[in-house]
Structure formats: structure tokens, C-alpha cells
Amino acid sequence: MLQKVTAFVLRPTPAGRELLVFQHPFAGWQVPAGTVNPGEKPTHSAIREVAEETGLSSLSVKAELGHKDELLPPDQAVVTAATTVFSRPNPSSFDWIYMRPGIQVSVLRKQDGYTQINFEEADILPNPNYTTYHIVGWVPDEVLSQQVRRHFYLFEYEGSTPPSWKVNTDNHTFTLSWQPLDALPGLIPPQDTWLRVLEEYLQK
User: Fold this and answer.
1) How far is the C-alpha of 148 from the C-alpha of 101, rounded, in Å?
2) What pairs with residue 134 in β-bridges?
3) Beta strand pairing status for 147-156 and 2-11?
4) Of 90, 114, 141, 195, which is most buried, counting CB atoms within 10 Å of its CB?
């Protein structure tokens, strides 16, 4: 099972609560989220992801909002451990590509303890356009899973920030801003459904 985290960072304002979101340069509006590293506790992972993706440090978890388990369909899987991608189902074949944990891939076929996977990254802003990166290759069966557990956390921020700012992380530049909780820009799927976890907590 791969473990992931999602962080909702709120701040109070005279007009009501605002949520910290960022615009990915090629994939739309998002909230901080990521993969739990080996040996890392989910809470520590959430704190790390917030710092890396927002540039805000010294934030602590205000509330743990629980977790949700997801079972991916048979033709999908997530990479659970760093792995080399081979050109054949054989460790002596070409191995020019490395894949990190957390990436979701399509499953093409299985053979001799290996799975042939397909990964595509697309340019989807402002509209779906073209594939920018495409990997097809073989990885050991044991580095793949169809089970994902996502942990949700609430953070609160009471400091001051510019109206918007940029953070360079994960090979991209994110543009961050605070948005009214009742008038958020459309988050990308499936993040748009994650907001229900936050809404249910705030309604208690």
C-alpha cells in the first residue's frame, strides 16, 4: 500500500476563512499533497509537503482529518518504491530510466515477475494539448500497488504573506495565493472531491 497526504492550510480573515492553493504551471489549481517517504510518519510528511510546496515554515498540524483508502482499477497502479525502468522484463536489459515513488501508471502486461507500465505527462493548461513526457517499460512487480491510503490534515496560518508568491519545487514553479473558502477556483480532479473532507470537519 502506498501512503499519501493532503494538507488544507487555512487562515482567518475579517471576511471569512481562506484556503491556500497553488496553480501548477501545466496542471491547474491544487492544494499541497504528496507521498509519504519510506520510514516517514504521515504527519511529518504533511508538514514537509506544506513547507516544500508553499515556502511557509514552522507550521504545525491543527487537526488530523482521517484517511481514505482507494483501490485502483486493474489497469492502474502506483509506484511504491524507487525503481529502475527496464526495456525488457529482465534486469540485464537497458535501464536508462528511473521512476520515483508516488507516480500513478497504467498497467499494460505482466511477464516473469515484471510489469510493463505506461506513464504520460501532458500539457493540459489552458486546455488539454499534447503529451510532454512518455515512459513505457518494465518494473519489478513488487514496486507496484493498487492500494492507496490518503491522510488528510488541517493547518492554520496567522502570519502575513504577499497576495501571491512563487515557489520552485518538484521541477516546477508554483504560484500560491489565498482564496475565499466559499469561492475557490476549481481544483483539478480528484482534488476537487478531497474538499468534502475539509467541509465535513468544519461543519462539526
Assistant:
1) 12
2) 120
3) parallel
4) 114
C-alpha to C-alpha distance for 194 and 189, rounded to whole angstroms: 9
pTM: 0.90
- Take residue 170 and report the three cell numbers written for it: 518538484
Q: What is the mean pLDDT of residues 150-155?
A: 98
Buried b / exposed e across 72-90, counting CB within 10 Å, b at 16+?
Answer: beeeebbbbeebbbbeebe
81, 121 in Cβ contact below 8 A?
Answer: no
| 136 and 151 share one domain | no
Of 134, 135, 142, give the one whose Cα is nearest residue 94. 135
Residues 68 and 155 reside in one and the same domain: yes
User: Which pLDDT tens digit goes with each residue over 81-101?
Assistant: 999 999 999 999 999 999 999
| 68 & 6 share domain | yes
DSSP string covering 19-47 = EEEEEETTTEEE--EEEPPTT--HHHHHH
The amino acid at residue 74 is P
The last residue of one of the domains, among 124, 145, 166, is: 145
Which contiguous run of DSSP H or E holds residue 123? strand 114-123
**Which three three-digit cell numbers place residue 202?**
468544519
